[in-house]
Amino acid sequence: MNKKDYYEILGINKNASEAEIKSAFRKLAKENHPDVSKNPNAEAKFKELQEAYAVLSDKEKRQQYDQHGHSAFEGGFGGTSGFDFSGFDFSDIFSDIFGSSFGFGSQGGHANRPKKGRDVIIEMGLSFKDAVFGIEKTINIDVDETCKDCHGHGGTGEKTCSKCHGSGTITMEQRTMLGAYLTKTTCTSCQGSGSIYDKTCSKCHGKGTKRKNKEIVIKVPAGVDNGNQLRIPGKGEAGVNGGPKGDLYVEFYIDKDPLFVRKGDNVKLNIPITITEAILGCKKEIPTLYGEVILTIPPGTQSGSEFLLKGKGIANVNSNKKGDMFAIIDVIIPDKLDKKQKELIHNLAKTPLEQHEIFKKFDKNIKRR
User: Fold this and answer.
1) Are residues 47 and 134 in the same domain?
2) What number of other Cβ atoms are within 10 A of residue 80's Cβ?
């Protein structure tokens, strides 16, 4: 049976450096470990990865493999290879990948150490105005709180767990074609705490925490935008073994405004005007985020022209410096005219209006063609 190329197994080329080999193995081993992957072929894939790494990470064996391929190890290993992989030490790299849950013979678990509680993320919808100016909102969330009756222990009459002997973890040996290695899993008797109790707490049923609905006041700062997150320390889930509470993260989603369009800290506003206002110029009262202002539109203003209003944008959520506002002129062409208006337009059409540079440039280019 033809064996798959070791380089192909790790997804690297034959000129890969030692660092690239290790990096590739780390990534694939983490994805395909039988304790992590749901793939029914994960164990076979994991063994394949170990074998490839054991060869390619060793300079001498890699050189033999590059020269002779799999035939360099033919003779006895599992009926297909003569090289004994059982002496290869995977402990360092597995510890890097999987952390302390894979002990590889190390003494003393860390499952019973204090751990910070889980962070909680919620979404909050805001109106455009509330996002611009900030607001104070009260929310209700369900979180695990430390049980006050047992102070988070889960019971009374504490004693060392007889199953894990207080370590909080159970060490198991796994044997593979590449040798044996040790894995550590959380003790099922004490749930990783290292202790059991004569009497289980009746309020939390031994969990050490109780689900509770909490009311929290959120002070939304001015200037938040879509996707911004606000961190509120200590408002997440209860810690484990006396660890601190997790944090609450509030992610904002902003409603669109019927007038203003936000671009970062700047805002844009379309200003509709008539043809006569564009031709003759005018003064228009327009809205801003901070009240009404008078905008002077000079004669001959073209549709799409922009007018800058400094400091009329949104306050930056970090620096509080305000952005700008851009008033964009939108000349509206009437689609219905009464008889008198039509006469006026016809009379206007009899007068020369082609003196604008755009007309001259257009005519000039037409004549060149």
Assistant:
1) no
2) 13
Question: Considering the chain, what is the average pLDDT of its residues?
Answer: 82
Helix locations, the chain, DSSP H: 6-10, 18-32, 42-56, 59-68, 91-98, 128-133, 275-280, 339-349, 357-368
Q: Is 109 a member of any domain?
A: no
Does the residue 103 lie in any domain?
no
Q: Quick one: pLDDT at residue 174?
A: 67
Q: How far is it, in rounded angstroms, from Cα 224 to Cα 233?
A: 18
**CATH code at 199?**
2.10.230.10
The reply to whether 146 and 214 lie within a common domain is yes
What are the residues facing 77 on neighbouring strands? 81
Task: Give pLDDT tens digits for 84-120.
Answer: 454 455 555 555 555 444 433 333 444 457 788 888 9
* 123-137, 153-167, 353-367: least confidently modelled range: 353-367
Nearest residue to 262 (alpha-carbon basis) of 128, 135, 118, 154: 128
The model's confidence at residue 77, banded by pLDDT at 50, 70 and 90, is very low
Alpha-carbon Rg for the chain, nearest whole angstrom, is 36
Same domain, residue pair 245 and 130: yes
The number of domains in the chain is 3
Q: Which residues form the domain of 33?
A: 6-88
Q: Where are the beta strands (DSSP E) in the chain?
A: 120-126, 135-146, 155-160, 169-176, 179-186, 195-200, 209-220, 229-232, 248-254, 260-263, 266-273, 282-288, 291-297, 306-309, 325-331
Rounded to the nearest 5°, which phi and psi values hold at 9? -60, -40
pLDDT score, position 116? 86
- Predicted TM-score (pTM) above 0.85: no
Average pLDDT of the segment spanning 261-284: 95
Task: State whether 127 and 247 are in the same domain.
Answer: yes
CA–CA distance, 203 with 234 (Å, rounded to integer) = 23
pLDDT at 12: 93
Residues β-bridged to residue 206:
none
| pLDDT of 15 above 70 | yes
What is the C-alpha separation between 357 and 354, in angstroms, rounded? 8
Q: Is residue 184 part of a domain?
A: yes
Residue at 170 is within a domain: yes
Q: Are 289 and 132 in contact (CB under 8 A)?
A: yes
